[in-house]
Structure formats: C-alpha cells, structure tokens
C-alpha cells in the first residue's frame, strides 16, 4: 500500500508539473502571437518601413477603426501629394479604405489591398458604383494614385497597404472595410466578395481626429459634444456663477440660490464632458495628457467646492473667514484652469475658428465685466 501511495503521489506531482509547463508554453505562444499581430501608434518605427516605396518617417498616426484593429498613418509629403499606410490584421481577406465627400459608400473610390497565400501582395483602386459586388468596378475610380507608389506587405500577421494620392487635400470622409475571413478577390475578375464589416467616418487631417460615423445624422459627434459640454460647464457657467456670488450679494437671498443653481448645472455638464472625454480616441494627438490632467484637477477642485457647501459654517462662526478664503480661492483657481483647458482642448481638436473666436469673445467680456464691477466696488468703498 505504501508503494502504491508513493507512486500515486509521484504521478500526481508529474502531472501537475506537466500541466504547469503546458500552461506556460501556451501563455508564451499567446503573448508572442499577440505581439506579432498588433500594431499601434506607440510603435516608434513602422515594421515594414524598408519595404514601402516612399519615406514613412514622421507620419501622423491614428487608431482608425478599433473594432477591427485598423491603424492609419498619413502625411502631406509634398505639394499636392498625400501618403497613406493602412495597417490591419491579415485574416486572408482584403482590407480597404475609401474616400468620400459626403460619407456615402456609393459614388466613392477606394484603395483595396490583399495578400495571397504565397505572400504576393495586390493593391487596386475600385469605384463603388453600388452596394452589391457586381457594382464595384476594379481599376476604376476618381482617386489619382501616384505611379509606382502602391504596395501591399504581409508581415507578422498584419497587412500593410501603402499608397500615395495626388491631391491638394483628400476628401473629408474615410470608409473602411474588411472582407470575409479566408476569402480573397477572384484572381481573374478581381471582383471583391461582399465585405464582412464596413464603417464610414469623417476625418480631420490636421488634428488626426475621427468625428463619429458618417451618415448617422449626428451633427455633433462625441468629440464635439465633449468640447461643448466642457466649455459650457467649466468654461462658461462656472465663471458666470462666480460673478453672481461676488457682485450681487445685495440681492439676498436670490444671489445665493442663483449661484448654487448655476454652479450645480455647470458641475453636471462638466462631469458629462469628462465621461465623454474618457471614451475618445486620443492616439497620435499632442498635449492630450496635459488636457486630461487639467480636466481631472478641475473636477477635483469643483468636487471640493460642492463638498464645502455641506460643511459651510454659520456666519457668526470664528472659522467662517477661513472657509471663505478656501472657497473663494479654490473656485478662482478652478475657473482659471478651466478657461485655459478649454482653449487647450480647442487647439488639440483643431476646431474651426468660430468656436475659438466665440469663446475668446466670452472670456474678454467676462474679464471686462469683472474689471467694471471691481472699479464700482472701489468707488463705493471710497464713498
């Protein structure tokens, strides 16, 4: 019995060691596979830079379609010349990027690339005359591709489609598509199988930001909603609330309730802006970390202000003056940071000048109003 027990224990230990070894081996394989099939804007150098027929250094980069792991690199490489490199997982299918003036698939032109099982890459332009495969015409389209500059490279489980366009400025909507897994276009007719998935997005080439899905009827994409909510909450309502509290105390108690209502509304809008901000695509954008850190600092200060109301001492209390000092100065610091962060956000998004000018006018009027009220208080004190 002792011998049997020893053998059982030895066999159990061996089985556990074997299971552990297999688990570690599986983990290593999974990690190596993940590393070899991913690409991101954090990558210092393009993996296939030497195989691309044009200089790919200093390209802007954006996570174009996160659901399909599409990464787009691009640059205005010369007068009337734009260069693009689209990276996507190689699943034995084609990948495509189309250019559209209104975000519609029909009537647009697309660059489509794929690699055969032998590793040979093919890149073609297609005219999207309709939504069925028969209406998608190869070697046709409105894009002016630069000759001898298009290539498809399959490397480490990813497909890289590189091409150059001869245009002053590409069309504002990009349409991404991926074909069905393991189903390549016909080698003779070049007809594309029906795409597995497709998305259309407006694109800001200056900032690299994607503005929602085209054709959805959404005039205010998430990025712009974030900006407008933050501007109205932190950058407009809170400064107005400060004015009501400092310069309209003679209207007691109306000033207090007005101040509370304005600040609570601004606080709510600001929280909504921050929630939307964490959902945005920030790949390839400069100063986003600074903008995010300032937003969190403003939220912390505003939260302290709201909590301070709950601990507000009575007017006759000896600590009331310390509470006033804290409440007034934290509020002023939060407002100044908020105004600066609004301008920073507009700069990061490369928003149209109308937004920047409009907010600049508001800040100028706000500053002039404060100066006028302060002068009035000084003259009143002299009297």
TrEMBL record:
Residues covered by the DOMON domain: 68-179
SMART domains on file: B561, DoH
Cited InterPro entries: Cyt_b561/ferric_Rdtase_TM (IPR006593), DOH_DOMON (IPR045266), DOMON_domain (IPR005018), UCP037471 (IPR017214)
Residue numbers binding heme b: 226, 259, 291, 327
Transmembrane segments: 228-248, 260-278, 290-310, 330-349, 355-373
CC cofactor note: Binds 2 heme b groups non-covalently.
Keyword tRNA processing: no
Signal peptide span: 1-30
Domain of life: Eukaryota
A GO CC term attached to the entry: membrane
GO terms of molecular function: metal ion binding
Cross-referenced Gene3D superfamilies: 1.20.120.1770
Pfam family of the protein (one): DOMON
Alphabetized UniProt keyword annotations: Electron transport, Iron, Membrane, Metal-binding, Signal, Transmembrane, Transmembrane helix, Transport
PROSITE patterns registered for this protein in UniProt: CYTOCHROME_B561, DOMON
Cytochrome b561 domain segment(s): 186-382
Compartment annotation: Membrane
Cofactor: heme b
Listed name of the protein: Cytochrome b561 and DOMON domain-containing protein
Organism: Paspalum notatum var. saurae
């Amino acid at each position: 019995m002792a011998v049997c027990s020893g053998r059982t224990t030895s066999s159990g230990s061996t089985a556990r060691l074997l299971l552990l070894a297999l688990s570690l081996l599986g983990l290593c394989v999974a990690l190596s596979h993940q590393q070899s099939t991913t690409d991101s804007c954090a990558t210092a150098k393009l993996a296939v830079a030497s195989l691309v027929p044009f200089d790919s250094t200093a390209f802007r980069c954006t996570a174009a379609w996160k659901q399909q792991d599409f990464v787009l690199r691009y640059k205005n490489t010369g007068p009337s010349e734009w260069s693009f490199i689209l990276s996507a997982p190689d699943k034995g299918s084609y990948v495509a990027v189309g250019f559209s003036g209104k975000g519609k698939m029909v009537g647009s032109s697309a660059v489509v690339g794929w690699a055969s099982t032998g590793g040979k890459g093919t890149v073609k332009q297609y005219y999207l005359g309709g939504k069925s495969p028969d209406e998608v015409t190869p070697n046709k389209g409105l894009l002016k591709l630069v000759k001898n500059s298009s290539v498809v490279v399959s490397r480490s489980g990813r497909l890289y489609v590189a091409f150059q366009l001869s245009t002053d400025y590409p069309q504002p909507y990009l349409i991404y598509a991926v074909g069905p897994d393991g189903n390549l276009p016909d080698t003779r007719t070049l007809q594309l199988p029906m795409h597995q998935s497709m998305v259309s997005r407006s694109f800001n080439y200056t900032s690299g930001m994607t503005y929602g899905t085209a054709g959805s009827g959404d005039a205010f994409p998430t990025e712009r909603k974030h900006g407008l909510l933050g501007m109205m909450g932190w950058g407009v309502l809170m400064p107005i609330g400060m004015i009501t509290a400092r310069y309209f105390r003679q209207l007691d108690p109306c000033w207090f309730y007005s101040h509370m209502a304005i600040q609570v509304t601004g606080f709510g809008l600001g929280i909504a802006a921050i929630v939307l901000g964490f959902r945005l695509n920030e790949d390839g954008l400069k100063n986003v970390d600074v903008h995010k850190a300032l937003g969190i600092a403003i939220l912390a200060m505003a939260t302290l202000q709201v909590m301070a109301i709950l601990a507000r001492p009575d007017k006759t209390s000896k600590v009331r003056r310390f509470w006033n000092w804290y409440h007034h100065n934290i509020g002023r610091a939060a407002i100044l940071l908020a105004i600066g962060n609004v301008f920073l956000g507009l700069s990061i998004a490369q928003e149209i000048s109308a937004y920047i000018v409009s907010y600049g006018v508001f800040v100028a009027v706000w500053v002039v109003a404060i100066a006028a009220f302060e002068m009035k208080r000084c003259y009143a004190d002299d009297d």
